């Protein structure tokens, strides 16, 4: 009797190239402010690795430099930069070259901004005026105050403009956070620089330019 052995393949199914390309152009590049050399290396690695179904790509430093038309020192710098932004992980680095795992935009938390279920582009939606969009902000914040993390039971809590309206802050999901009344009032009184805590929170993925992925609008 023949026994079928299941072998674990190192390959994974390749992503949809068209969608991936759009994700890189529309979301990844602006969200992570990629330079042209960053893009050259990222595209090259995706093309050679993930689009071939290889999650971890083995590549010699020289081949990477030739393939991207960059110098080896630039390639090294770019790899470090992309690694720092968590767009790739260098699994191994040796004499022969690298073993690199490249993350796709949809695998990076907060990178791809989804569309609302009604097909609207979230970038243009006024999140302040419509109840369902207001609720989406509270849900994104897990019903906690963005500044002090206090729980916000239903009916309590307000939407706060990170950049105040008086300073031309928009009603975009990027500029709105859930806040308790105390923090909102304190912030409103203080037109000077925000506290260290709120500055730190502003740089969190929720409120920065890549903050849409956890947003769900039904
Ligand atoms: Zn608060």
Explain the overall architecture.
This protein has a three-stranded antiparallel beta sheet with strand order 1-3-2. A two-stranded antiparallel ribbon has the order 4-5. With 218 residues, it is α+β, with helices and mostly antiparallel strands. The protein folds into two domains: 91 residues, Winged helix-like DNA-binding domain superfamily/Winged helix DNA-binding domain (Arc Repressor Mutant, subunit A); 81 residues, His-Me finger endonuclease fold. Strand 2 and strand 3 form a beta hairpin. The N terminus is likely disordered. The structure holds zinc ion (ZN). Zinc ion binds next to helix 6. The site of zinc ion has 8 residues, from helix 6.
Going by CATH, the homologous superfamily of the largest domain would be Winged helix-like DNA-binding domain superfamily/Winged helix DNA-binding domain
Give me the strand/helix succession. HHEHHEEHEEHH
As a percent range, the share of helical residues equals 25-40%
**Approximately what portion of the residues adopt beta-strand conformation?**
5-15%
Q: Tell me the count of domains.
A: 2
Shape: elongated
Strand order of the largest sheet: 1-3-2
Number-wise, the strands total 5
CATH T-level fold name of the largest domain: Arc Repressor Mutant, subunit A
The unique ligands bound to this protein are:
zinc ion
């Amino acid at each position: 009797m023949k026994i079928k052995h299941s072998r674990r393949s190192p390959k994974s199914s390749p992503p949809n190239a068209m969608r991936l390309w759009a994700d890189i152009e529309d979301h990844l590049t602006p969200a992570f402010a990629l330079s042209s050399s960053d893009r050259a290396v990222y595209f090259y690695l995706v093309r050679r690795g993930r689009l071939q179904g290889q999650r971890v790509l083995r590549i010699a430093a020289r081949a990477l430099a030739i393939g991207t038309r960059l110098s080896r020192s630039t390639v090294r710098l770019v790899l470090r930069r992309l690694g720092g932004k968590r767009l790739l992980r260098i699994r191994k680095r040796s004499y022969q070259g690298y073993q690199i795992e490249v993350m796709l935009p949809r695998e990076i938390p907060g990178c791809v901004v989804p569309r609302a279920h009604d097909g609207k582009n979230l970038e243009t939606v006024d999140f302040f005026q419509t109840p369902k969009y207001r609720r989406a902000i509270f849900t994104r914040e897990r019903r906690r105050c963005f500044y002090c993390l206090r729980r916000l039971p239903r009916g309590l809590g307000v939407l706060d403009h990170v950049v105040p309206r008086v300073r031309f802050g928009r009603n975009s999901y990027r500029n709105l956070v859930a806040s308790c009344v105390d923090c909102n009032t304190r912030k409103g009184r203080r037109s000077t620089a925000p506290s260290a805590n709120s500055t730190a929170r502003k740089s969190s993925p929720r409120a920065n330019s890549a903050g849409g992925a956890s947003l769900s609008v039904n």
